[in-house]
Amino acid sequence: MVLQSFIQYKAFSQSADVQRLSTRNVKQPSGPSRAASTLVEQDVATGGKRTSDIDEERVAAKEKSSSDGKDEFLVDWDGSRDPLNPQNWSWFKKWSIVLLVSQIAIIVGVAAGIDSSAAQEAAARFEVSEEVMELQTAIFLVGFGVAAPFLGPLSEIGGRLPVYVITLGAFCLFEVGSALAPNIQTRVILRFFAGFFGSTPLSNAGGSLADIVGPTERTFVFPVFAAAGFLGPSLGPAIGGYLGYKVGQEWCDWLMAIWGGAIVILVALFMPETFAPSLLRMKALQIRKATGDERYTTALERARKDTPFIQHLRHAFAMPFKLLFLEPIVFFVALYMTVVYIVLFGAFEAYPLIFEPFDLNPGEIGLTFIAIAIGIGIAATPTPLVYKRYLLPPEERLILAMCLSWLVPVGLFWQAWTAYASIGPWPCIVAGLVWGIGVLSIFISSYQYVIDVYNVWSASALGSLTFLRYIVSGGGIMWTRPLFMSIGTHWALSFYGFLSVVMTIIPFAFYVYGKRIRSWSRYALSPV
């Protein structure tokens, strides 16, 4: 148990419910006569007031509870304003969590792309071709995708915080191993596991944000996290280009290990547990400890007691694949996100070829990715304005993508036909900013739409999105260079541009037909 989790556990011992029960006679007779001493009756009896001076109301509450058939031993929050409920935490505490989670998103994204700009130095070190060195980036993304549907549900079993600490720690260890790898085979294997364990905290992050904010608040919080997630891949090549060029490729991995270790320490010391069922379990433990009555349990504890653990785990692992292949919304959003990620991560291999006519060194080529990062930052700005009065239906979340998704093909065509030495590098650089705006707009819009549509199943739906887009974009790393070498920079970028044009139909289609499609689903939010 890490520091903040321990503090939360102790805080429940001072909660009103636990204090009220602990001061009562623990050895009251069981059965109906005990009803007035339960959590539910106490809330009914006092009308939400924290007083204990009206015995008549307690008796009335007892009779009402018995007639209503309420479960007197079910542990829940102490009313809608319970200060221990993450939804009721202060904005300072919530934003501290958002910034920590965003740091995790940045470092994992940087790790995905930091080696791509140092491929030339790495190829010389291991005496292999640059094409072989592309594997280190591709396999990281594949590991990321493979882990998402399997390790993502772990947070719904043991809580968010242990997943952060354990998987981030493992990520750092594999980055150390990558830095020390004596040959390319060892390095590729270690990069796979770095991506594998790097996926879980990022998959966990969306759940953490949903734990602490509602749909309206998420309008302001999610763009920060989303921008961080995309800033990482765009900053990685900029950092790696100069590190590899100046001090050696292995320092890319050392930087990730050191940076990741610092974040693990911050998370262990300052990140609280946010998963409500885990927190309620802490409360139930304190109540059982105070009363000696083992019947006080949470809804999740009862569900797990009735369902074998293996069956619960099997269901959790199967759900992302079930949603991906049976839900049209999930499938087509995943398809769109996959194209977006092929463009983003394909840039790792494409940019050295795009900027080849301009005679830039690896460090300078890495700096061109900063324009993409600026575009991503710009895209995060209008989101709260678009959704500041957000209510149902979920299709309203698609407005941002409908307005800005066209910037992806525009930027790609712009980049394709200005990549001439006679024109200079700046038009190509600015084009990256343009499609960077479109990429983040699609991501924010799509993710929020899926979260709103699938609600309690959103973690599994997002896991399926992560699985498909990272697996395919990992393969995209390997085919990018052959594509550009065979048909040329101009037509290769145009190919991605035409593909993006086709994909822009998706948000418009779901905006018009999304309500009808949701009516067919057993998992999606019912139309209202």
Automatic annotation (TrEMBL):
InterPro entries linked: MFS, MFS_dom, MFS_trans_sf
Stretches with biased composition (Polar residues): 21-40
Chain ranges of the Major facilitator superfamily (MFS) profile domain: 97-515
Topological type in the membrane: Multi-pass membrane protein
PROSITE patterns assigned: MFS (PS50850)
MF GO annotations: transmembrane transporter activity
Transmembrane among keywords: yes
Keywords on record: Membrane, Transmembrane, Transmembrane helix
Cellular component, GO annotation: plasma membrane
One of the Pfam families matching this protein, by short name: MFS_1
Comp. bias regions, Basic and acidic residues: 50-65
Name of this protein: MFS general substrate transporter
